[in-house]
Amino acid sequence: FNACSSALINSILVAITVGTLVALLSVLAVHPAADFFAADKTVGKYAGDFIFYRFLGIPFFLISVSFRGFFFGINKTKIFMFSGVLTNLLNILFNYMFIYGKFGAQEMGVAGSGLGSTFATAFDALFYCVVILLPSYRKQYRIFKNFRLNFNIIKTIYKISLPVSFQNVFILIGFLSFVGITGLIGTTEQAATQAVISTLFISFLPCFGFGIAVQTLVGNNIGSGKYNLAKIYGFETAKVATYYTLTLGFIFFLIPQYVLLILTNNQSIIEVAKPILRIAGFAQIFYASGVALANGLQAAGKTFFVMMAEVITNLLIFVPLAYLFGVYLKMGLVWAWLALPVYIIIYTFIIFYKFRFDVWKD
Fold first, then answer.
1. 245, exposed or middle or buried, with CB in 10 Å at 0-12, 13-18, 19+?
2. Cα separation, 127 vs 161, whole angstroms
3. What's the half-sphere exposure (Cβ side, CA atoms, 13 Å) at 328?
4. Cβ-proximal residues to 336 (8 Å cutoff; 6+ apart), any chain
5. What pLDDT does 37 receive?
6. Collapsing DSSP states into helix, strand and coil, what is residue 104?
7. Neighbour count for residue 258 (Cβ, 10 Å)
8. Angle between the N-to-C axes of helices 267-299 and 339-357, in degrees from 0 to 180, rounded to the nearest 10
9. In whole angstroms, how far apart are CA 224 and each of 8, 73, 361?
10. At 316, is the secondary structure helix, strand, or coil?
11. Is pTM beyond 0.85 here?
């Protein structure tokens, strides 16, 4: 119990330090970056305003991530569910307040959406702080008695978490680059791409839940020396996740226009987005098992391998292929999007092969 609380405390201290530095550096660069990736200056301005306020929430987000890792590790995943429900409800409330200027708040438009989401993220971190101070956790894990720096733990945290952090950065860079590439094809094409990516991220949320399940099950069984059982849990969860994305894939393929109506009622955008949503629906079928097994590898300490798989398939295959097909060869948006299933299938194959044949016992 003492080791668990020491890991949590030091992880939070790292999150505060790193999160504050990243937030300060990011807010200085958001407007130039938004202008670079946007199809026109108006879009760049709105995007820059949104990202500016959103990045202020990075320290709170990283604190929440530290708490999530702690509660996943002790098999208290329901707390994350409660946190998610609370945060999403607050996100809706604060977005409504700051976008439209309700309940005494200033009307801020798109920028208000970023500020509202940051407030919701801050309350998420506060929620975890309240939970960890409940007597059942505070006494068992001796939170205050273990409140001290441990550089060995911090070193281990950096060793495990840095590859995961950089992997997420590479994913973000890859998709931002892809959105920028579609902007070179056309403004409507970029808007359609953003609509499809937003749809994908919504559909991916349960996949991340499956990934958390794999991470918890694999990590606990490896810790108990049950290596074969850890792999069985990983593969079985990947199967369930694939059933989910297979169902969504059929929906995306058969009725893409109705799915897109959730995000936009602009018929010109919907018409452009329909074929690429079908491509995305096909790609996400394979994505589920890739995410699940990647989380299993991370639980086994293979974070650097997972990061490199992302770098190779995303930045060295996905982005260049999208530019080659969509811009250089002038084959259009659909061909640019065909780079997505290539990226996802290769990534999933690499992760599957490593998970299947890697020998953890040694």
1. buried
2. 23
3. 7
4. 178, 181, 182, 185, 322, 323, 325, 326, 327
5. 61
6. coil
7. 10
8. 10
9. 21, 13, 11
10. helix
11. no
Tokens read off for 179: 């959105």
**Residue 101 buriedness (CB in 10 A; 0-12 / 13-18 / 19+):** middle
Q: What is the DSSP string of 135-189?
A: HHHHHHHTTTTT-S--HHHHHHHHHHHHHHHHHHHHHHHHHHHHHHHHHHH-HHH
Q: How far apart are CA 34 and CA 184, in angstroms?
A: 14
Per-residue pLDDT tens for 172-192?
A: 788 888 988 898 898 889 889
Looking at the predicted structure, is the pLDDT value of residue 362 above 60? Answer: no
Instruction: Tell me which DSSP letter residue 134 carries.
Output: S
Predicted confidence (pLDDT) per residue in 40-68, tens digit: 677 677 777 888 888 888 889 888 888 88
**pLDDT category of residue 119 using cuts at 50, 70 and 90:** very high
CA dihedral 129, 130, 131, 135 (to 10 degrees): 120
What Rg do the C-alpha atoms of the chain give, in angstroms? 21
Residue recorded with tokens 């997505």: 340
Q: Minimal CA–CA distance to 85: which of 97, 75, 93?
A: 93
Q: What is the mean pLDDT of residues 140-148?
A: 70
